[in-house]
Amino acid sequence: KPRVFSGMQPTSESLHLGNYLGALLQWVRLQDTHDAIYSVVDLHALTVAPDPSVLRDRTRRTAAQYLAAGVDPERSLLFVQSHVPQHVELMWILSTFTGMGEAGRMTQFKDKSAKVGESGTNVGLFTYPVLMAADILLYDTNVVPVGEDQRQHLELSRDLAQRLNTRLGEGTAAIPEPHIVKEVAKIQDLQDPTKKMSKSASSPKGLIEILQDPKAIAKNIKSATTDTETVIRYDEDAKPGVSNLLRIYSAFTGRAVDAIVADYEGKMYGHLKSDLADVVVEALTPVHDSAMEWIESPERLDSVLADGAAKASAIAQVTLDRIYDRVGLLPAL
Ligand code: AQP
Questions:
Q1: Side-chain-facing half-sphere of 231: CA atoms under 13 Å
Q2: Of ligand 1's atoms, which has the minimum distance to the CA of residue 15?
Q3: What value does the mean pLDDT take over residues 283-289?
């Protein structure tokens, strides 16, 4: 079976709808056809200097949400990145294959460091995509399900894999393919639908969070920014707000956007929002409840994570040994 790998950072109390539709639901689907490995990438989260007292809790909460959404530990490996030390070891090797200019062109680094200014940024934020490449290449990953915002990072992972094969011989690294589902790859902020829904940049009203109170979810949907027209139709440029709501509606119901638009002919934005709020709350309630059960049984959760880390580490060590050997490191006796 082809291998799928992906991860998310434990940088908030709850994942948002972009994380859920753009990534997590794709992870769940790919388990049927792929050998799946999913990680809570806590080392990546250190780049934003999280409060140490909340990071551990958010790491468990993020894993709980993976499980609640349908990542099945019987079929997939689920682990915390810092439990598998090979990620950092491979990252060092890859950093020696990465050009300064190449890393400096990453738009996420440019955007995030521009916000905090050069003195507020850190080297970890700069090398973030190299650690991400290590995450991916360590498992000889074929497919990486992510949202649109990660496309450029994935391109770097592919370039690094190709470079390893050119310099160290074919078969050194597998070349990963992005799995980006166009319709859900960029869920927009409800308040500012020209921007992506984001853990760090969205206002609380711009977000829909999996673990949010259903009333707050409905309220945020009902106060979503639309436009001054009154017609419900799909037009990403002229009507980004309405188009975003239609895409979310379509993702949850499995119905085509055109069919939804036809249903709402002659109706008002308020109708669409109110129905969408019901659809989203109904779909997220079982996920919310299951996540809370996992969060309330940390021993059970930690045992799933320990099992995942042991198995992931065994796979990772094989890749790391191969690459250490090919770059010419002397094996320890
Ligand atoms: N708005 C989005 N629409 C679709 N997919 C999205 N993803 C994130 N936002 C959207 C995808 O969710 C995964 C989360 O990866 P991450 O934890 O590394 O977070 P991120 O990409 O940095 O995005 P966030 O969650 O909104 O955080 P910030 O605020 O830091 O930008 C990835 O697969 C991502 O593509």
A1: 6
A2: 25
A3: 97
